[in-house]
Each structure stands twice: as C-alpha cells, then as structure tokens.
C-alpha cells in the first residue's frame, strides 16, 4: 500500500490534490491522510506517519499537480534502489536553502505557477533520470520507504513551524547512510514558491545550529529557465527533458 500524508487547512486545496493522487495512483492500493490540526509541519507529518499503513509513505504539499504520466511505475522503480526520493535537491548542503551550493551540485526540474498559468520551468541540474548521492531535498514531495521514515521521523521538538523540516529530515537520512535520490522523471507543478520570511529565518537558524552549516545567502544564479502559457505545452516540455536523460 502507498500512504499519502498531506497537512492542509484548506478543504478546496486538499480535495484538488487528493484528486491528483487518485488519478496518479490508479488501481494501486492507497490511502490519503489529511492532517488538519498540526502545530508544525513536523508535528503534522508525524501524526500522519503514525496513522499510515503503507510500505511506501509520501509526504506532499497540498498545492501540487502531478504531471507524470507513469507516476507509479517510475516511483516504484526508483524506490527499488533508494530509501528516499524527491524531485529537487543537492549533493552538497552548505546552507539552509538546499539550492545554495548551486551548479553542479543541485538537481531537479519543477514547474511553478498557478494551475491556469503562466508556468515557469526551473531546471536546477540534469544528470540522469534519478541522481544519487543526494544530501538534502525540497519538501514539496518526498517519498520514503516506510523502514526509512520510521527510523527518521520528523523533528517536531526543534522545528516548531512550517519551514526547514524537509532539509533537516533528508540531511539526517543522508548522515545515517540512507540512499537519497532526486528523480527528474516525476514532473510536478508547484503552485507556491515558498516564503523566506522572518519565521523561515528563525527556523533556519535552528537548522544551522543543529547541523553546523553556513548562514543562508541567496544563490547568484538564475532559476527560471523557460515560461509557458499553456499547460499542455508546459507538461510536454517537462517530458521532453525526461526523454533526454539516461
């Protein structure tokens, strides 16, 4: 079984993302767990983990669309080799923002924008359909073998808000010797770019203190690689990227 854990206080968003997963998972046995009363993302994800039964556990934002035509076979194939799969991350964590190390250490392709467009394709780094040796990943979508996340859990004592939970968990997974991979053949639309506000800075300071990494500074390289006005065109562009990868 596949368990999907989503923290959401917005019923419309939850219903929309649930429909995305219902279509993507198809006939695969699954459950979708909505955590509505979470003190933090870590707290909510631990609640969802404790309520879940799947041998694969997905942790997902409530503002994504799944644009992968072969979601299940691709995801399962990757989890035969890896303990944790994400869609964007770094092989060198130097600051609280996973992207800070820059090329050639960051990987992923993610489309950003609202569901009606326009769409902005972020190509962080392309090496293979799935890139090994990853140290930390973005939390918009993370897939774990149950055995891996059961060991790790989410650090709700340190990260009491909704930031840095993802970097902490995946970096701890790396330091434990688990196998992390960024999959570039799982195209997603993310309808948020994140918020680097005062709350994020406070949580980032805790991450720095916990893991001994550097202070965050914005990366000096461009992130937007292409813009599309049509969803069909944007989806096709991401699949073309997949087709070029070994």
SSE map:
Blueprint: E1 2-7, H1 11-25, E2 30-35, H2 41-51, E3 56-60, E4 64-66, H3 71-79, E5 84-86, E6 88-90, E7 106-112, E8 119-125, E9 130-131, E10 136-137, E11 141-145, H4 146-152, H5 165-175, E12 180-183, E13 188-190, H6 198-211, E14 224-228, H7 231-244
Parallel strand pairs: 1-2, 1-3, 5-12, 7-13
Antiparallel strand pairs: 3-11, 4-13, 5-11, 6-7, 6-10, 7-8, 8-14, 9-12
Number of helices: 7
Structural class, from secondary structure content? alpha/beta
Order of helices and strands: EHEHEEHEEEEEEEHHEEHEH
Q: What is the strand content?
A: 15-25%
Number of domains: 1
Largest sheet: 7 strands, mixed
Envelope shape: globular
Strand order of the largest sheet: 2-1-3-11-5-12-9
CATH topology-level fold name: Spore Coat Polysaccharide Biosynthesis Protein SpsA, Chain A
N-C termini distance: 29 Å
| Second rung of CATH, namely the architecture | Alpha-Beta Complex
Please report the first level of CATH classification, the CATH class: Alpha Beta
Summarize the structure.
This protein has a single domain, classed as Alpha-Beta Complex (Spore Coat Polysaccharide Biosynthesis Protein SpsA, Chain A). The protein is built from seven helices and 14 strands.
Would you write up a description of this structure?
The protein is of the alpha/beta class and 246 residues long. The chain has a single domain, classed as Alpha-Beta Complex (Spore Coat Polysaccharide Biosynthesis Protein SpsA, Chain A). It contains seven helices and 14 strands. The chain has helices at 11-25, 41-51, 71-79, 146-152, 165-175, 198-211, 231-244; strands at residues 2-7, 30-35, 56-60, 64-66, 84-86, 88-90, 106-112, 119-125, 130-131, 136-137, 141-145, 180-183, 188-190, 224-228. The strands form two sheets. Strands 2-1-3-11-5-12-9 form a seven-stranded mixed beta sheet. It is globular. It starts with a strand and ends with a helix. The model has no long low-confidence stretch (mean pLDDT 94).
């Amino acid at each position: 079984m596949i368990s999907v854990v989503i923290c959401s206080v917005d019923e419309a968003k939850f219903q929309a993302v649930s429909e995305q997963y219902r279509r993507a998972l198809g006939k695969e046995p699954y459950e979708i767990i909505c955590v509505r009363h979470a003190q933090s993302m870590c707290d909510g994800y631990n609640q969802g983990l404790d309520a879940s039964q799947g041998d694969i556990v997905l942790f997902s934002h409530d503002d994504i669309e799944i644009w992968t035509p072969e979601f299940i076979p691709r995801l399962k194939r990757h989890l035969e080799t890896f303990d944790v799969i994400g869609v964007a991350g770094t092989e060198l964590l130097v600051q609280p923002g996973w992207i800070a190390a820059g090329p050639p250490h960051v990987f992923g392709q993610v489309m950003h924008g609202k569901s009606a467009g326009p769409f902005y394709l972020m190509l962080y780094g392309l090496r293979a359909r799935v890139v090994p040796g990853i140290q930390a990943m973005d939390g918009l979508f993370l897939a774990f073998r149950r055995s891996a996340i059961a060991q790790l859990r989410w650090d709700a004592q340190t990260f009491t808000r909704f930031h840095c939970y993802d970097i902490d968990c995946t970096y701890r997974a790396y330091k434990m010797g688990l196998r992390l991979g960024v999959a570039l053949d799982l195209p997603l639309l993310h309808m948020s770019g994140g918020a680097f506000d005062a709350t994020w800075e406070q949580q980032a300071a805790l991450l720095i203190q916990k893991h001994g990494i550097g202070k965050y500074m914005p990366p000096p390289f461009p992130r937007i690689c292409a813009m599309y006005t049509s969803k069909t065109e944007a989806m096709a562009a991401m699949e073309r990227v997949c087709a070029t990868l070994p």
